[in-house]
Amino acid sequence: MHEMVVDSSSEIFIGGEVWNYNKSSNDIFILKINESYAYNVTWGDLNYEEFSGMILDTNDNIFIAGSSTENLPETKYLTFINKCNIICYLFYFQNYMA
Predict the structure, then answer these.
(1) Which own/partner pairs from 25-33 qualify as long-range (CB within 8 Å, at least 24 positions apart)?
(2) Most Cβ neighbours (<10 Å): which of 1, 31, 64, 73?
(3) Farthest CA pair distance, the chain
(4) Could you report the per-residue pLDDT of 6-31, keeping only the tens digit for each?
(5) Looking at the 3D structure of the chain, how many domains does it have?
(6) How would you classify the pairing of strands 49-56 and 12-20?
């Protein structure tokens, strides 16, 4: 776990990294917990993803920041910002910056 935030409905969101044994690198996860259920979302590709942090805005949208590696022609890190809604399922945008 890297970070935990609580929204206006007292739902808990935990973010961090999880090791993916199939590809031998990190993926990012978001875990949502409330009094009746819990679920998680993970994402990543064949590269190494790193979680940097997350915040909630006044509408309880979650903004997740991190980085991912790119291997062409050399390994370099690209930073990203993701925004997801309260169910943490639909990502509205993903912005990679070199």
Answers:
(1) 25/49, 26/50, 28/64, 28/66, 30/54, 30/62, 30/64, 30/84, 30/88, 32/87, 32/88
(2) 64
(3) 48
(4) 999 898 999 999 887 777 788 888 88
(5) 1
(6) unpaired
